[in-house]
Amino acid sequence: MRIQGLNHITFSVSELERSLAFYERALKAKLLFREDTTAYLDLGGIWIALNEQRNILRNEIYHSYTHTAFTISPTDGEDWEAHLTKQGVSLLQGRERSPEEGHSLYFTDPDGHLLELHTGSLAQRLSAYNAKAAIENSTA
Q1: CATH number of the structural domain spanning residue 49
Q2: How far is the C-alpha of 104 from the C-alpha of 124, rounded, in Å?
């Protein structure tokens, strides 16, 4: 018995219309289903659910590094950056990382959920971390 994979990601949103517009325009998601307070989208084969919840606190979300990262091709990074900027999306400064880990674009959706478009893979990240650890261990 084991987890087979990611099923879906659900975001609580304060205004469904505004969030739908963001995910469709900025991230090029495809609308699959919609009713009063719920929408399902396809984003690169990932099921994204948006559930409208108007009256909940959202302040703490702006102070967290909890985020969702989507894979993009290394050759598409500049195009995505230009596209997001054209859509009025403010890009955020990411954390420092080595070039071997890949490149990231960070931004938030209209409700403050931190999103990332990332060019690296888990294998690249682990390789970079292991190389860094080997250097640190050899100088200790």
Answers
A1: 3.10.180.10
A2: 13
Q: How confident is the model at residue 5 (pLDDT cuts 50, 70, 90)?
A: confident
- Indicate which residues carry an active-site annotation: 116
Percent of the chain exceeding pLDDT 90 equals: 55
Q: Three-class SS of residue 12?
A: strand
H-type helices in the chain, by residue range? 16-25, 77-86, 122-139
Using CA atoms, how far apart are residues 31 and 44, in angstroms rounded to an integer?
A: 12
How many folded domains does the chain comprise?
2
User: Do 70 and 103 belong to one domain?
Assistant: yes
Domain containing 2 equals: 1-55
